[in-house]
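FW: tagging you since you asked about this chain on Friday. Here's the raw sequence from the shared folder, copied in full. Didn't touch anything.
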Amino acid sequence: MFLCQIDYKNLRNINKYLVYLTFTPSCSELNKFIFSLLIIILFPSIGNCQDISYFVKTLNSSSNKREKLVALDSILSRTFTTNPKAFIDYSLQYIELAKSMDSIEAAARKAMNLQRPLTNYGSDPTLAIDIITNVLQKKEKIKDSLLLGGLYLKRGRARAKINLEKAIEDYTLAINNFSENDTLIKADAYLFRGQAFSSSGKFLEASESLKKAYSLYEAKQAYEYMVYAQQGIINMFSMNGFYDKAKKERELLIEKMESLQLHSYLAGEYYNQAIDYKKMGQRLKELEMLRTAENLYEKHPSNKSLFIGIQSMLITYYCESGQIDEAKKHLTFLDSVDYNFVGDIPSEINYISGKGAYLLAIRELEPALSLAQRRLELAKQIGMEDEIMEAHKLLADVYFALGDPYKSLESSKQANLLNDAIYNKSNVNALLYYQTLYETEKREKELIEKSASISLLEKDNEVFKKVLLFGGIAVLLFFGVLLLYRNQRHLKSTKLLQEKFSQELLAFQEEERMRISKDLHDGIGQQLLLIKNKLMLTGDEETKKMVNNTIEEVRSISRDLYPFQLHEMGITKAIEYTIDQIDENTTLFISASIEDIDNIFSMENEVNIFRIIQESLSNILKHAQAGASKVMVRKFPHSLIITIKDNGIGFDFEEQYQNPKSLGLKTLLERTKVLKGQMKVTSKKENGTLLEFEFPL
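HL: got it, structure written out here
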């Protein structure tokens, strides 16, 4: 049986846009295309009445790429839920055609829609990953943050079937690429990442992501989705055998659901609790929870998949307890519901488990065998070890009833092997969980001990001062030593204050740069745009050109003042972008080797690292008279090393550092101190310069 979770068949908002193409057709062709589109939009019944063969014929006969694209779109809308294989084949054609027309965003939308059918129906998540990766190679042409983040999110969903670590990376990229306005879909990314962390046994990270999802849903007052985030936390405990913890959290969630009037979700929570009781072997409590879930569902019906799960568990329970009449009543009730299992493998597995148990109980063994084999096939398709194990158990019982002990024994062995694997995994996860708790408590204990030590040191310091005071009065010989000691402390304190002042000055400069940059962009930039728009009405092209140049200059100054690309692209991409800009717009040739250093430092420290590289390259451009430079950023287990080398005229470090007008080297050194790093300068006149920075991780 499956825990009741949110069904993200289609990511919200991502498919809200119509397919649009980036081309410039002739007027007559454009009118024809728009007219066709209006007919489809205003009279959908006409489009629905058209048979798929009509659009296939149009696709095969037309030589016009736009017409072929429209035909493909019509085919895809008719095969999405009815013919997964056809949907996959025609989606691949659409993507290739859209890419050939340089309509990358249109290709991206179809690549996203293709992920789920490929992963679930085609059992080929690798192909889904390859298709999305291919589209992402031209991600610079995707301006819609919702679409770009959605591509990473969909690739993460596919990778979750293969490699959870890679999936987590994609969920993180999705979070970073969504804008502040994409709150709900960003919350979904946090939710999926939390589930992936949970499956990986990383409970602390899972909890943080799921709580972040919860807070984002809460900020938008999306109470239903808040429930899903809380369910993710509870399921994390259930999946890893922490049933008592899951029960306590579930009881709190049920109280919250009742207070928010979310009655349609209550049945799902009691159903999930019944599953936990079944795993714990508490069958009477299982039945109690199932009956409660059934009654709640009758009062507040929700999705049919939940109804199927409840009825199937009741059928299985009554069959195993010998109450065949009760089981038959629930099976008849279940069969009366018209439900299409296409795309809903968990519901189909639940249905088969109930019906298979009933057929076995009434000794209709051949149909029971067929269903058991189908259940195993579906369980393997989605890769759920619990369901594969249960399918083998059902097969073992059916084979035994058929008088085939060898096949029964083989299925039992497979079930036992999986049971051992699941048990061992649960033990490992439990160990990780308690280790996490231990590490957390250990850190808290260390903080308490350090606080206590500081308090003792402060008390000792007070006693020491008193001793010095009375000792100085009694023994004048120690006065000189005391004076020297105080003087040294004063010098050290002064030095620390100077360093602190320098660091605060750097931070203040960054704040001022950001403020001025924003004022330039939002204030002067907007005013210049208004002037430009007015000039467009007068037709004064020369003045318009001057205003355009001024706008570009303001934007360039704004970008130089504060690296907003850090927030948009991450530090790695921001460094690469800065190097590319210098390489393209100056005579300096720069080669670079930049390793991924995203999410290693805080945002404040990332700004300092970015400024160090930016200031170093600026010094080369201004003073080195170099023709070439090389930048290397290398990440090691315990440190980050940045080297910047040029073939310029070199300089005398001591001479330049002592020069009161030379602030560049001093700024570099202060930023290095902020990061608790080390800076090394190797330079000789006419032999170039090597700057090396090492920062601890």
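FW: Residues 678 and 694 are 5 Å apart (CA to CA).
HL: agreed, and The radius of gyration is 33 Å.
FW: great, closing this out.
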